[in-house]
Amino acid sequence: MTLLPKAALALGAVLLSTLPAAAQQSWKPTRPIEFVVTSGAGGGTDVFARAVQAAINKHDLVPTSVVVTNKGGGSGVEGFVYGTGAKGDPHKVIFGTNNAWTLPMVAKTSWTTDNFTPVAIMAFDEFMLWTKADGPYKTAAEFVAAAREKPGTLRMGGSQTHDTDQTLTVLIEKAAKIQLKYIPYQGGGQVGVQLAGGHVEANTNNPSESIGGWRGGQVKPVCVFRKEPFPPGPKVTETQGWSDVPTCASQGIPVEEFNMPRTIFLPPGVPAAAQAYWADVFRRASETPEWKDYVARTNQNGRFVSGDEMRQVIKKEEAETRAIFAEAGWLVK
Amino acid sequence: MLANLDALMHGFTVALTGYHIMLMVGGVLLGILVGVLPGLGAPNGVTLMLPLTFSMDPVSAIILLTSLYWGALFGGSTTSILFNIPGEPSSVATTFDGYPMARQGRATEALTFAFLSAGFGALVGIIVITLLSSAVASFALRFGPPEYFAVYALAFASFVAFGGGAPVKTIVALCLGFGFGMVGTDTVSGSMRLTFGLDELIRGISFLVVVIGLFGLGELLLTIEEGPEFKGASGRIDPRAMLRAAARMPRYWFAMLRGSAVGVWMGITPGGPTAASFMSYGIARRTSRNRENFGKGEPEGVIAPETADHSAGTAAMLPMLSLGIPGSATAAVMLGGLMIWGLNPGPMLFIEQRDFVWGMIASMYLGNVIGVVLVLATVPLFAAMLSVSFSIIGPIIVTVCMVGAYTVAGAPFDLWLAVAFGAIGYMMKKLDYPMAPLILAMVIGDKAEDAFRQSMLSSGGSVGILWSNWLSGTLVTLAILFLLWPFLALLLGRRNAAEVAISPDAGHEETRA
């Protein structure tokens, strides 16, 4: 009599211990998947997540359905808070940028980057310096010269406070030894239009945020924050292509390289098998023609990074950003 | 202009296919459903449909999404009028006179007025887009922070200064609205405000949740206390009432034109449909011949916000396409769609994607006509809901409200917020505090603050920037005049009173001031 329950318990214990082991070998989604976007609908991260969703749907890369939800409140804090709440659930996938590690630096958040399980970086969005097409600054060098002449008067528009745009503005100021006036708006699209209307003198939009304005003759890119100019490609306007834009370093703004990773995380405490599963799915998604088309159209760098390499990228970026933020006095606490 | 008409004809050849008309009907029907349910507004509806459009041709995709938007704009007015629960934020102003009309048993009439004037407003908006697309787009480029602030200030002043009621209570409601609107991340400094360390408050308090609480739940609490019957609301369906109301529409031609003008202006600048409807209501209440009836069931009080709401909604499509400025939350989602379909909003869109742009504009004519017809067909159905016993409809409304509050952000916390605002709404009604200023302050207070501080950043702290060009200067001056109007009227009134005091029977004249 007394043996039986013990045996049952032992059996149960064996079963329990084997179950997670089995799960570790392979994991597959069994329920609908939620792509949590840390920006509002229509934002850059939203378009990123939906492009991935479209590629995954088209090629049946996952067995269950995928829903995209926008949790962009508090510059994306909302999405990460939601992710923290979904501890251990690999059916929730969080899409972001470097906001995954910059937000905890500038705002009091209940989570840190280390809480989340890194899955992949699917692209790096480039940054360019833009001026008004018919404005007084034809080149980046002219812009720098004007800024040096009248310190602190030229207005630089950006999409938020204490974000990549403002970080880049600080780097530009330091590198070119100039002073600008940073004005935060809401989103790159708005900043592009503000430049087209002449309400700011320059901005640091991503190529995709201002391509429409460039083609329409409202704004123009004067330099790109890359080591080398873009490789030759098709013309964007009637006379110019992305490759015609010089590097900023050659224009007297020695910021060699600046870009923004498009990141994907899983909630804290998910099994390693799920992490591997998703890294594989996104790797395959990044090889689809739909994804390649998105990357080409938005003129991003489609380098795919996952696993330990991603951890290193994050570590390096985080340290660099922290140093800049500390000097600018943006860190909380 | 003629070239535009030519392009429009071409657009009709794109839009007038069986498949596209089917998409329009489907989109409008879905939209009406989405619009009727509070919380599940047009932005949510369009977001939900977005993945479906990935495999579509861009023209078909935008036709489906815009039709859904028109449907939602129409449907949003239905619950405003019947239950005092705005289905869409831009339908809040429709409750002011629509709901009193329903309570007097004139629900059919109010709904007919609302839908017909909405259709009229939409038509005006589309005609402006068709004829003036290029001029309007370059005008929108003139709007920097000072101009934005001026637009918001004018919308605000034209509504608030024209309001009745105790000034102190209005100010209290305004301050509450500004306070609630401030919760969350501050755009300019990037810091958290009024979140009390709660993660749930980081994204701010959704204006939709507040509307659901104040209007929906608050109204229900009041109904329960006053007796579980919708007073005087007659559920009798009378198709002739619809026809009679329709026949009376032309009488309000001036109100419709005025509302459309306000709407087009706010759609292009872009202040958005919600601010447009408030502004239009405010101006109508001030300038109408029937101003004494406003708030008591005056048809013009339904027509003014409805025309403005729809003309703003349609006109806002222009800055979205030509500049990439979303004039409303829904337009922002559609912008994201544009990028996914591989289109870049910008001036070139009109030249390179003629099929897309003009097909869409042509579909706006058709979609809105379909919208008016379909939504009018639902009038008897919705009016019949009023005859259902409160013990059945009451719980349904609570359920719909709570589902709506949850859908806004998928956050359980919002349910508690809605309940709390329900209690606040009940108390405000009991104590006779106006709720409209609170809502308006929430809608535009936050944006106006951003615009003001951005202006101050670029001017280095000088208020003079608001008068640095004729555009913002005129708007700000007008806003200040509007705000001071009650005092000016008082002064003028006093002088008039003094002048006419000689004649013995002039005493009644001054009561107006």
UniProtKB/TrEMBL annotation, chain A:
Q: What InterPro entries would the database entry show?
A: BUG (IPR005064), Bug_dom1 (IPR042100)
Q: Which domain of life is it from?
A: Bacteria
**CDD domains attached here?**
PBP2_Bug_TTT
| Keyword line | Signal
Q: Does the keyword Signal apply?
A: yes
Signal peptide residues are 1-23
Protein family according to the UniProt entry: Belongs to the UPF0065 (bug) family.
UniProt xrefs under PANTHER family = BLR4371 PROTEIN (PTHR42928:SF1), TRICARBOXYLATE-BINDING PROTEIN (PTHR42928)
Specify the protein name: Tripartite tricarboxylate transporter substrate binding protein
Q: What is the lineage of its organism?
A: Bacteria, Pseudomonadati, Pseudomonadota, Alphaproteobacteria, Acetobacterales
TrEMBL record, chain B:
Domain of life per record: Bacteria
User: Keywords, A to Z?
Assistant: Membrane, Transmembrane, Transmembrane helix
Location of the DUF112 domain: 21-440
Signal peptide (UniProt feature, chain positions) = none
Q: Transmembrane region positions?
A: 20-40, 61-83, 110-137, 149-181, 201-222, 323-344, 356-376, 382-406, 470-492
Write down a Pfam family by its short name: TctA
What protein name does the entry list? Tripartite tricarboxylate transporter permease
Organism of derivation: Teichococcus oryzae
